[in-house]
Model the fold of this input.
Amino acid sequence: MSTPLPLIHVVDDDESLRTALLRLLGAAGFETRGYASTGDFLLQSPPDRPGCVLLDMRMPGPSGLDLQAALRRHGNPLPVIFLTGYADVAASVRAMKAGAVDFLTKPVERETLFEALQRALARDAAQRAARAEAERLRAAFAALTPRERAVFDGIVAGQINKQIADAMGIAERTVKLQRAQLMAKLGANSAAELGRLAERLQHLPD
Amino acid sequence: MSTPLPLIHVVDDDESLRTALLRLLGAAGFETRGYASTGDFLLQSPPDRPGCVLLDMRMPGPSGLDLQAALRRHGNPLPVIFLTGYADVAASVRAMKAGAVDFLTKPVERETLFEALQRALARDAAQRAARAEAERLRAAFAALTPRERAVFDGIVAGQINKQIADAMGIAERTVKLQRAQLMAKLGANSAAELGRLAERLQHLPD
DNA sequence: GAAACTATTGGACGAAAGGGCAATGGAGCT
DNA sequence: AGCTCCATTGCCCTTTCGTCCAATAGTTTC
Done:
């Protein structure tokens, strides 16, 4: 389960600048990959790997903002750092409101760039951990049968087995059985843990 | 318990523009208050009321960014909308990274301004509700004695009364008693609810 | 059609939870 | 000392939980 190394995507149509960036980042020990356009990035869309995107704002074809929006829709929210020469306030504000980690202007100081990268990678790691956790939780609940799910809801609502059985029109004995089954499926050892799981489930996106 | 109406704070050293803004907002049904400087705002610091701050960036004395930072430190995080004539990218990015709702440039379109206000007030309401909820939770837990708190931890950890009693060196009967007392104090009716409370408590800031 | 399988149920037993009642013992006050 | 107040405890009883074994009915598979 070793997490793959982070990969820095550099999207910029200025080839000389792009290769300079790639060299700089590579020298700093980062693994990198360059793209001449938004389309190139989306086509050569990398596997699901930790990392972030260093993105020019103004390029031929779809803009950096378009790519940022596409990433969000795609459910592959790699953190984005904008790095652009033609900066205007409106574009920078739109980028930040859309969730960009930072918005830097060329020429950028080495120090500034690395700080932003650091924050972007940290955010990616955090998001990734949160998504993995959410996925585990969702999968566990998806493994429950509808009945088990109903029993779960009853338990979390503080009902005792008899009340749950009554509400569902089944025998208390059956509730006990399904209770044991759902607790096994969720890996819970107590009613308190079921409550914790319910709370976490409730606060998941979607 | 009726929530007071939101109050819009307008901080701008340009008096004619400030009064124009106040008049515009007042005509739209908002309650408003104007300040000529960051210092004025901090001095005439209003009571804890819902609302937001419409803030100029460049003013004599402390800047809008300074005020934004002060609000955050003060634990009175009213949402901030910047509205400024001398906008540069670096300042806008700093403002947005510091959590500004929006960063508008003069002259601003009426529509744009009202949309931003809408979002700012919505954010304030949400933050306020979350803070109130957190406060209630904290207060409830603060009312527990250390013993009750220990019993709570044991329950949430899935231990049965006997184990808790053993670990604390007290009788099981006492654990039962404190269990009932802490559940009454927390308003919980089941172990599942205790689990939910524990989960929420764990995810509070601080 | 028979066998295998799943969901549901009944009965029963030990363990645990929840709670009433009274006794104990220490802290603090008069 | 005498007293009250309160946390702690023991005893006992009822309800609920967690499981075991076995039986029944409906469904799927061969």
Summary: Chain A is about 55% helix and 10% strand. The CA atoms of residues 16 and 79 of chain A lie 24 Å apart. Chain A has a mean pLDDT of 92. The radius of gyration of chain A is 24 Å.
